[in-house]
Write a structure and sequence with these properties.
The chain is mainly alpha-helical. It has one domain. The chain is built from 17 helices and no strands. The two termini are 24 Å apart. The mean pLDDT is 90.
Length: 450
Amino acid sequence: MKIKLSDSFTYGKLVRFVLPSIIMMIFTSVYSLVDGFFVSNFTGKTDFAALNIVFPLLMIVGGIGFMTGTGGSALVAKTLGEGEKEKANAYFSLVVYFTLAVGLGASALGVIFIRPLSKLLGATDNMMRGCVVYGTIMLCAMPAFMLQNTFQAFFVAAEKPRAGLIVTIIAGVTNIIGDAVLVGIFRFGLAGAAAASALGQIAGGVVPVIYFGRKNSSLLRLGRTSLFWKAIGKTVTNGSSELLGSISSSVVNMLYNARLMRIVGEDGVSAYGVMMYVGFVFAAIFIGYSMGSAPIISYNYGAKNQKELKSVFNKSMFMLSLSGVIMTALAVGLADAFSGIFTGYDQTLRDTTRHGLRLYALHFLVCGINIYGSSFFTALNNGVVSAILSFMRALVFQTSAVILLPLVIKPAIDGVWISVAVAEAAAFVLTVSLIVANGKKYGYAGKFPA
């Protein structure tokens, strides 16, 4: 039976509705994870380090798609809740076209400046060629990746999360097969890994255009629109936290790489790369849940249904808290297995990665609440609070932690590994404070859990 945004959500119905988004985000994280696996095992740790050096730049550009998707879907879902379907479709079309235009411009600039940007990110002479090759190919496909990120949110708002999941699976499988053939069989190295990811991203961006461009059974369809500057402004404001979070996380990753290069060299960057891949998959569960539940929040906010808004919020907080404990236990318990997958060819690197991952994994305890908190306020069309949470969590707290903790914790590398957990703990305090402070304003305050 089809689940609608206007339904009353039990725990079971809520899980069924958000599950496609969770799986969708896990498959999206496959891009970097599969590339990392094949590059590390088939081309060596120098190319693996080069990939990790340039990756934050790609995430900054791709983050524009998350911004327009989350911000735009919040506006569209709220408009649907207000009963204005025609206006919602006009806003939807405008956001998609705007994303494509911005993506083409950002991609072109990235290709032009990829070499100096790689140098700025900390690439050594040995890494430079790999950074330029991988970065250039990935940037050429970036407009499609941005569209894929945008459509992931809109599939949920259109009450078609399963269709979004199918598209993402197609993209993920394309990437996996491409890596196996181009890197594993033909040994094209970083160029092959980038080409495989690019093909997956193109599939993920183009298929939704075809779906929404034709007559379909969803709430949304691409068509003619007007240049609603206020809607664009609201989209950018609503989604600014997601872009800011992407930029901040990328800047922090650059700082981590620079710190690790100074402390232990390429091995540190490679070990951190493995932690990022594990983090991408685990965080994808939290991001997917937040993305999948956000249109429900926006719809009920637009419909002024405070009872359902409070119910969904309380259920979400309970499930995310429980998930954080489970994921932390899994990450710590499987640290050696994860390390072996990527660095089994080098025992010293594997030992470094295993030890670091066990410290790094502690942040999963609370990061789900932090991710949900920012997404929750975006869904309420409060981009300011959402941006504050993203900025403080991803930039201020993590930057401060990675700079200061290696100075006071010995060995210094342990200070780097534990800094993410310390930063997330600080962000958790801020997130809970702002959630409590705004409870009465939006009507979700109440007994926990519901």
